[in-house]
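#structure-requests
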Amino acid sequence: MTKLTQYTRNFQHINLSHVPEVGGKNASLGELHQNLSSTGVNIPPGFATTAEAYWDFLDANQLRAPLTGILDSLDRENYENLAEVGEQARALILAAQIPDTLAEAIKTAYHELHQQFSHHIQVAVRSSATAEDLPHASFAGQQETYLNIVGEKALLNACLHCYASLFTNRAIKYREDQGFEHMKVALSIGVQQMVRSDKGCSGVAFTVEPDTGFNNVMVISGVWGLGENIVQGTVDPDEFTVFKPALRNNKKSIISKKLGAKQLTMVYSDIPNSIQEATLNTSTSAEKRAQYVLNEEEIKQLSGWLLNIEAHYEKPMDVEWAKDGITNELYIVQARPETVHSNRDSHIIKRYHLKEKSPVLTTGSGLGGNIATGRARILQSPKEVNQLQQGEILITDTTSPDWDTVLKKAAAIVTNKGGRTSHAAIVARELGTVAVVGCGDATDKIKNGQQITVSCAESNVGVVYDGRLEWEEESIDTKQIQLPKTKIMLILGDPEKAYQHAFLPNNGIGLMRLEFIISNAVQIHPMALVKYTELEDKEAALQIEKLTAGYGNRTDYFVDKLSQAVATIAAAFHPKPVIVRMSDFKSNEYANLIGGKQFEPAEENPMLGFRGASRYYAPSYREGFQLECEAMKVVRNEMGLTNVKLMIPFCRTVEEGKKVVEQMASYGLKRGDNGLEIYTMVEIPSNVILADQFAEVFDGFSIGSNDLTQLGLGIDRDNAFISELFDENNEAIKRLIAMVIKTAKEKGVNIGLCGQAPSDFPEFAQFLVKQGIDTISFNQDALIQGITNVYEAEKSLKSNRKEFVA
């Protein structure tokens, strides 16, 4: 083999076994070409220079000794001369010449690449270190990439700059941290057809949920133009969540779509072959900001490729994708193993609880599920690293790989810009650091030196509080928790917590309230959408017009938002049952929704008024209930999430139950079709007294202990004057519960209870177990204590039975 052929390798002729020759990045591209092109995955063609080419470059220019000397001068205690050392090393390489033999090999491979196309192409020139992308370290972006390169001269210049980028400040510090010897790491250059995503869009994708490692979904993020804006976190991207089982079964698999602001679009500059100014950011038009970067067919195509890639590598993957705006073709431009969650023990769950609250300074997307406190340090640039003391909280506009040395010192990271796949978010996950990204106003609302507390423990929304707050920490090994015979279920209404809570020990969701979703994800009264043209409140009409922009029919907005939120929870717990309770707002609560006042009566006692089942067949709300049913049809029939069961609240009479079930059937939700089960709440004494008749109408019961106690004892539970009388342990309430459990058992229908009492009172849990209840549902903060109480109750009951037999 001649030097000419030893210096370059076509992507088609390399794979992961060639990491020592071409580095992890280029070896991965070759692996994709060799094994996935045949499955229909588009990968831009190209070639790589070898490690041997790099070593010969150093030797031809006699650079090994001077480079070693420069690197030996590095201050390895405080790294105060890191910038100086890096600058000297890069200057040494940039002053060198690429040997003729190597230059000829690069030019030959470049012309062979061009011959694959009938039109003129630009190339991307990427750096791939031979120690990059190892399973235990995936700090991407240590070396440079040069885009929009045309012609031999520009290509060779870009290659020289790639060699120099092996000694960026961040690359030097990275190798120091990882224990890699600088002069044992070579650099391979990847030269690849450049996808014109500057005229299209691009992004990243994880084949697991990136915040929790939940494996049944994949998350795709995208922006207009080049993908660097996602990495740098300078814009808020679109985000699509895809449910893998639905994708495999050819069902509607996109369970969530979030429209990002996409404030900027990165394009190529007008300066051809520029190394320093190859790109520039332009403001995204209002029209483009209101559009998703991918349509549903493109999301499905890309998701199919991601499944193939994950299956080939047999591990979760972190993938970069791009869409050519000229040809409208999608491409995969990089794939590497996801190394954060795939190396963690998902059975170990840490929970953090703030013991106090203070004024909120700002909020954003929260990462890490943790809490940190410290002094805020506002930095404008990584050059100000010396201002940040160990354990302080970094507050900045955005971060890039140049910030890596800074981020390691921070107790938490708070940025104005960026989404869940931005550089700050990715590094925070790898470091296990608390981060709140995309706040928008962090550098304005937080003062330099201010004591603050950053909490990401409550949901995916990160909150920055004023002052130093106290919190408690709990570590749970779920493998050590034995679920009792009685099924233990969760109460959950917030889709943002679904993937996190799915790792808790449970048998599914016993109560999912639609009210939380309608209030937060939808915000609009359903009848205000149905009768939008008749709205009298002009301000509400403007709000609705803004929220429903992009929807051909305004009612589609309600169905889309509601179905996506329910599907997120259903997917997180699939195939376990998820019992969705249809909306149970009171009239005063419905009136608070956008446009709601026009459609709601003024009631003196809404708690006992127009609520629950009574609304669903009433002429004034029937069409609103139909929208709820349409959303449930999408979830169950189109997405294939048949683990969803539906539940009717506050059903006063058997006749009313029949009306609602018939109404649902007329909307396409017929009991028994596609395995549909319809439950009802037991929260009114009539539900207990006529339980045998209700059991003929419904497939199961869920005891709402709060309402049953309120109505059983005649107590307004919100009235402070008589609050001490509210007690689920009251003998009258326990008799009602025992009666309905007995009837349910006789009629062969499932019965459960949702409430706090079984976790707060061990004797109440023992009472339920003794009656033979099927399921008990807890809020996540009460789950572990609830499991303990139920398990102990079962042991006690078993022990008593043995003593009785003896």
